[in-house]
Amino acid sequence: MSIFSGIWVPLITPFADGAVDHAALRALVRRYAGAGMAGLVALGTTGEPAALDAAEQDAVLATILDEAQAAARHSHDARALPVLVGVAGNHTASMRERIGQLNPLPIAGVLMAAPYYIRPSQAGIVDHFTALADASAKPVVLYDIPYRTGVRLELDTLLALAAHPRIQAVKDCAGSLDTTLALIRDGRLQVLAGEDINIFNTLCLGGSGAIAASAHVRPERFVALYRALAAGRLDEGRRIFHALAPLIQTLFAEPNPAPVKALLAAQGLIRDELRMPMTRAGDALRERLAALAERERSEARETEASV
User: Fold this and answer.
1) What is the number of other CB atoms lying within 10 angstroms of the CB of residue 203?
2) Where is this site: Part of a proton relay during catalysis (predicted)?
3) Is 143 designated active site?
4) Which residue among 32, 138, 143, 261 is the active-site one?
5) pLDDT in tens, 172-199
6) Which CATH number does the domain housing residue 37 bear?
7) Contact by Cβ (8 Å): 192, 172
8) Structural domain for 42, as ranges
9) Is there a domain that residue 257 lies in?
């Protein structure tokens, strides 16, 4: 069974006065390890890697890996929380070099989208991913997100790439039910929902899990959703998802990760800072998110009182 199952959190990068806030980042890793997450994604699009220089990216990854291993020691769990690392770009040779730097690290794999902006042919995409997978010592998760890259991974392309022994999963953001179902039925790639509102659908179809930015908030409920559906408890899973849906919709009302950061800041976990060209959530949305944060605190207090 591939490790790419369950709920994975694509970690935000917290900032404080413009610098990476490594203390807050460590606290977030501990929080999600304790919530039962299957794994973490470092330097995915939610983590604003395009706004980090190379040294900052390396430092963020080092902090996440170190804290993931420390959380395992503190919980007497022999297995550190797996960490998947985003590798982005449209220059194949540079990406191969980056993968070479990552190979010695204790990571679960690399997450890679199609080359952005240049819109290569499907044959070019196959060659690109094949070259990168050949260079990787770790498993590869494809990231199909055409509204960011400008080109989608067609089904035939995904099926061709599935033959590579190190390409093991796909983060599915293409919005095509036909493609999602075909990949699940084919069975060679683990299919992870990449659009949070599609988590329920993907899991019910037989997908392996999700990489969900909204799982930064109420992580235990996202884990409970996965476990209910994996165990065949459809009614329970449906109730959990219906309760989470308004939160998911609110967290994507403006470009990610601004709403997620605003809500985490309202909960006192980070500062509400992003780097240009990203901007903070608008005033009206932040008011809605602050109300959500207060509701979360009230529900947490009620839960504690009932224990």
Assistant:
1) 22
2) 45, 117
3) yes
4) 143
5) 999 999 999 999 999 999 999 999 999 9
6) 3.20.20.70
7) yes
8) 6-231
9) no
